[in-house]
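Justification of computing resources. Each target in the renewal requires a structure prediction run like the one illustrated here; the chain below, 278 residues long, is used simply to show the kind of job we budget for.
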Amino acid sequence: MKPVFALIDCNNFFVSCERLFRPGLEGKPVVVLSSNDGCAISRSAEAKALGIPMAAPAFKYRQVFRDHGVVQFSANFELYGDISERITRILTAITPRTEVYSVDETFLDLSQLEITDYTAWARAVKNRLLKEVGIPVSIGIATTKTLAKLATALSKNDNVLNGVLDLTGLSEPDRQAYLLKTPVNEVWGIGWRLAPKLRAEGIYNALELSQMRPQHAKQLMGIHGRQLVAELNGQPCHKLEAFGRIRQTVMHGRMFGEDTSQFNVIEAAIASLTARAA
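Resulting structure tokens:
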């Protein structure tokens, strides 16, 4: 039986958690700052629209915060963990074949569930989580984890999709159109190191990456590259990891745009990356 994966991704999770207790903030710009209020580690859609980037040092954006009435919260990781556990309990009740990928993302293996309409199922789950927990989520469904991740990201940025995208029910031309929309640097597993290599090869989006010869992908990126091409073509290489598996290492990294010795900038970057790796 071919696997079918769903990725449930909480929207602007830390901000959404804070809004649970301040519903009047819905529709207003909100940021959650690292524990020492050093940088933005979660932003509402309204804050993003103001041009406030992820990891924005708070001291550089104080004027923006004041001019636009941006509401600021200091991070409360204990609260976020508790809400994440509530979501996990609901998802594991749907199926025990669950992988908690991060504090705000969970993979589900749907292949053993009797689902006739994945889009309708996803909308029901989305509505249930909003009703029972109060957290908005986006859901991507596909035959591989890489495609599910891609589908979730696409569903967040399309008002028509409204937070749900099932790639399994699409024709091949329609599926390829979504891959074409996805810049190569936004493909799961392609970071700042690999993206320039791929662009140098003339590969700028997920569709072009999926069309790479597997052997060439392996030469360029190692076995990971070959697996990535397979996953983008619907051939699963990454299984669901058992619930509760203890990771030996957790990492999330970025390169600075320029050399810096400014303590505030470095501190802000560390806080932001730690939050993303949590």
